[in-house]
């Protein structure tokens, strides 16, 4: 099994979360709410308003999200879904466990440091660095940039 940090549209309550719970794709188990140890630039870009985590040294915020344990099938699916490595790259991130929500039986305890995969990107446009940054992504936040998939042909 693999640990994956989810900070964007795959989180609970966000538009792609049902994919994580789709057992015809693969297995995924929620482990805990977490936040990154380091600061990252979490911003919204592209015409589809995708959230991106950028590693810009010395900038950004400690980003909140969820850690899941996923099987190889789900990881392969997520690589495909996130257009990895063209759009996002799967890298590793250090996380601090916040709370486990009483769900699942797992060994993660608040305060523990965990490492997980994350879909971040290092192939961004310079002007992305001028955009607002967030510590907790919500498609319906007051930024007014809801996530949407392409609806019209290119
Ligand atoms: N999906 C992944 C990366 C960004 C996105 O929208 C996630 O939720 O973590």
UniProtKB/TrEMBL annotation:
Pfam families: GGACT. The keyword Plastid does not apply. It is an enzyme of class 4 (lyase). GO terms for biological process: modified amino acid catabolic process. The gene is LOC113085440. Signal peptide: none annotated. InterPro entries: AIG2-like_dom (IPR009288), GGACT (IPR039126), GGCT-like (IPR013024), GGCT-like_sf (IPR036568). May contribute to degradation of proteins cross-linked by transglutaminases by degrading the cross-link between a lysine and a glutamic acid residue. Catalyzes the formation of 5-oxo-L-proline from L-gamma-glutamyl-L-epsilon-lysine. It catalyses: epsilon-(gamma-L-glutamyl)-L-lysine = 5-oxo-L-proline + L-lysine. Belongs to the gamma-glutamylcyclotransferase family. This is Gamma-glutamylaminecyclotransferase.
């Amino acid at each position: 099994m693999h640990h994956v940090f989810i900070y964007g549209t795959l989180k609970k309550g966000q538009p792609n979360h049902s994919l994580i719970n789709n057992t015809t794709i693969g297995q995924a188990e929620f482990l805990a709410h977490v936040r990154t140890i380091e600061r990252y630039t979490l911003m919204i870009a592209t015409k589809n308003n995708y959230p991106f985590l950028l590693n810009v040294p010395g900038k950004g915020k400690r980003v909140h999200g969820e850690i899941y344990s996923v099987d190889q099938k789900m990881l392969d699916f997520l690589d495909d879904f996130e257009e990895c490595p063209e759009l996002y790259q799967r890298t590793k991130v250090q996380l601090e466990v916040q709370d486990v929500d009483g769900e699942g039986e797992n060994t993660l305890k608040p305060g523990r440091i965990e490492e997980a995969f994350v879909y971040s990107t290092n192939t961004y446009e310079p002007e992305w660095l001028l955009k607002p940054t967030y510590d907790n992504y919500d498609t319906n936040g007051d930024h007014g940039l809801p996530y949407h998939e392409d609806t019209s042909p290119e």
